[in-house]
Every structure is written in structure tokens, then in C-alpha cells.
Specification:
alpha+beta, 28% strand, 358 residues, 4 helices, 7-stranded mixed sheet, 17% helix, globular, 6-stranded antiparallel sheet
């Protein structure tokens, strides 16, 4: 009886074993490999605060997770923490005192992270805390242009760049084809007169001295002058230029019981582009613009350059929320002054005439 019972048990097991072996032989089914199981387990956590670089700022953005502390422990979304890049700074190794410009090109300007209300700006450091102040430099976004910035205007309305110390440091993006102009080391100034057939005059040059309204990655024939001799150069609008607009200091930050701190975003911060502590660059989109913004590296329908700190026409300070200063005139006519400032900003940043370059 015992033998019969064992046979009843063993025969089905043998049949199942044979069927499984046959299926494996014909690769109808397969067993998971140990390294595959291990790999899947590792993929559950692909980024945590431990993976973030020391001495850098990051933007944290996660619409599916309201608490940054959860993601600091680990997240499967590699885009939750985006590093604020440094860009190409025109003032690095340059002591000429020229207005600050940051250049990105059309292949990397999408690396600039976007900070929305509710997101966090965090800083990683194993050695220091910015307890003496957090330096903000705001940059105007002037869109795509050739690799030239800080054009100056003479009394006749013509624009030029200046040769200082045997070069055009701070004026020419060294990673652009505008470096062709670097050959003219004997000229004290280089004048640009036309872009295509259009004269480069007031209204076509931004506050940061860049050319307005150019189409991304388009080539333009530029007419340059060394003395009275002209040279035609083909240059590409593959530079995304940002020029210094205003500066201020804040002091508030929070510890997160982790390897980073959170920088407090001021309530008065406006939509714009910011360089923080001379380390990282990011774009801020306020609540009013959150649903207007197209999400791309450049949106000409958003006013990125509406100034926070307000001066009158004589350059007297009217309003600075970073210090709490309000003049009596601003207290009485604050909104009116803001509207006037916004209108001037919009006029300066207009893309009017862009079609003439084509």
C-alpha cells in the first residue's frame, strides 16, 4: 500500500518535471537569472542625495511627491533632481569689468532646470553653509543670437565691441563662430553695421548688447568693420545669451536632516533667470506664468526681464524688496511705477524687426 501511494505521488511529479524540462529546452519559458533579479532590485533606487555632487545647487521638482525628504532618501525618477549648470561665463579669468554675460548654446540650453512654486532649490556641501548671505544675480534672457554680447553704441548710433589687452574677452563667445573676429588684434574696436541687409541700430540691440530677434541656428551674413575696411562674416545664431540685470542678497535657508540645505525662495521673486552664489544657473517661473510657459529653453511670450529692483529715470532707487526699502514716491505710486518699468522692459525686449533679418 505504501509503495502504491508513493507511485501516485512520484508519477505526477515526474511528468511535471519532464514537461518543464521540455519547455526550457525549446526556450518556451525561461527562469530568471540571479544577476537579472539583482539588477532589478538595484534599479529601484537610481538617485538619492548621496548621488548629488558636492558644491552644487539642484532644483527638486516632483509633481507626484509633495515631500522632498522622501526623494532625498531615493527615487526612481532620475529627473527629480536637476543640477544647476554654470554655463560659459564671460567674466571668468577676465578682469576688464565688463558686464556679466552667460552663454549656453542650442545643444545644451535645455540643461537649465526650471524652478516652479512648490519646488525646492537645494545646496550640497560637505564643508560650508552660506550663512553670511546667498548671492543672487539675475540675468536677462535675450533669446538666440550670434556669439557677441556687450555691444556699445557711439554717438552716431553705430555699435561696436572693444579690444582690451589684445583681445575681445567678454564680448565674444569663445565656443561660437564669432571667434573669427579674434584675428583682428590690431583694431581698437570692431563695428558691426549690418546683419544681412538690415542696419544694426537702436531697437535691434538688447539691453545686454546682443542682437534681437534672430532665428535659432540660422546663419547670417554680418558686415563688420576694422577701421574703415569692411569684412563679411557668416555667423550662426546658435548662442543663447543671458546678460546681467540686477543683483541682491538673501539669507534664509533650512536644514533638511539630510546632506543638503533648502534655499528659501523669496515671495517677491519674479519669473526670470538666476545665477546663485556664482555657481549654478536656473530659470524660475512664478505662479502667474506657470500655465503660460511653453516649457522650452526659450519662450518669447514670457517676460523674463521685468525688474524686481526699481529705479526712476534719474537712477534713484525707488524699491528694493531684498532690503525692504521703499521710497515715499514708490509708496504713493508703486503700481504705476511698476507698470512704467514693465513697459520699458517690453519695449527693449521686443522682437520687432526680426523678420527683416531673414
Amino acid at each position: 500500500m505504501i509503495v502504491k501511494k508513493m507511485l501516485y505521488i512520484m508519477i505526477p511529479l515526474l511528468l511535471i518535471t519532464c514537461i518543464v524540462a521540455t519547455l526550457l529546452g525549446f526556450k518556451v519559458i525561461s527562469l530568471p537569472k540571479l544577476d537579472t533579479v539583482s539588477k532589478k532590485k538595484d534599479e529601484k533606487i537610481i538617485k538619492s542625495v548621496e548621488d548629488l555632487e558636492d558644491g552644487c545647487f539642484y532644483v527638486w521638482h516632483n509633481e507626484n511627491q509633495p515631500d522632498i525628504k522622501v526623494d532625498l532618501k531615493g527615487t526612481v525618477n532620475e529627473n527629480v533632481f536637476r543640477k544647476c549648470p554654470s554655463g560659459l561665463k564671460n567674466w571668468e579669468n577676465n578682469d576688464t569689468g565688463i558686464c556679466h554675460t552667460i552663454w549656453f548654446d542650442t545643444s545644451n540650453d535645455m540643461e537649465i532646470p526650471v524652478l516652479y512654486p512648490g519646488d525646492e532649490l537645494i545646496y550640497i556641501s560637505n564643508s560650508s553653509i552660506p550663512h553670511e548671505g546667498i548671492q543672487w544675480e539675475r540675468f536677462g534672457d535675450y533669446g538666440y543670437t550670434i556669439g557677441i554680447a556687450n555691444l556699445s553704441q557711439d554717438q552716431s548710433g553705430h555699435y561696436y565691441i572693444t579690444n582690451s589687452d589684445g583681445g575681445y574677452k567678454g564680448y565674444i563667445n569663445p565656443n561660437s563662430d564669432a571667434m573669427q573676429l579674434g584675428d583682428f588684434v590690431d583694431a581698437s574696436e570692431l563695428f558691426i553695421d549690418k546683419l544681412g541687409s538690415v542696419p544694426v541700430r537702436d531697437g535691434f540691440v538688447s539691453e545686454g548688447g546682443t542682437l534681437f530677434g534672430l532665428s535659432k541656428d540660422t546663419k547670417y551674413l554680418c558686415e563688420w568693420y576694422t577701421g574703415t575696411f569692411y569684412q563679411d562674416y557668416e555667423m550662426t545664431a546658435n548662442t543663447h545669451a543671458f546678460c546681467s540685470l540686477e543683483m541682491f542678497t538673501t539669507y534664509d535657508y533650512e536644514f533638511l536632516h539630510s546632506n543638503c540645505i533648502s534655499i528659501t525662495i523669496p515671495e517677491w521673486l519674479k519669473t526670470g533667470c538666476y545665477y546663485i552664489n556664482d555657481i549654478g544657473f536656473f530659470r524660475y517661473v512664478s505662479g502667474d506664468n506657470k500655465y503660460k510657459y511653453n516649457g522650452k529653453p526659450y519662450d518669447s511670450d514670457i517676460d523674463w526681464n521685468d525688474k524686481i529692483i526699481i529705479y526712476d529715470e534719474n537712477n534713484f532707487l525707488l524699491y528694493d524688496p531684498s532690503t525692504g526699502f521703499e521710497s515715499d514716491i514708490y509708496k504713493e505710486h508703486g503700481q504705476e511705477k511698476l507698470q512704467d518699468n514693465s513697459m520699458k522692459s517690453n519695449e527693449n525686449e521686443s522682437d520687432a524687426g526680426a523678420e527683416l533679418y531673414e
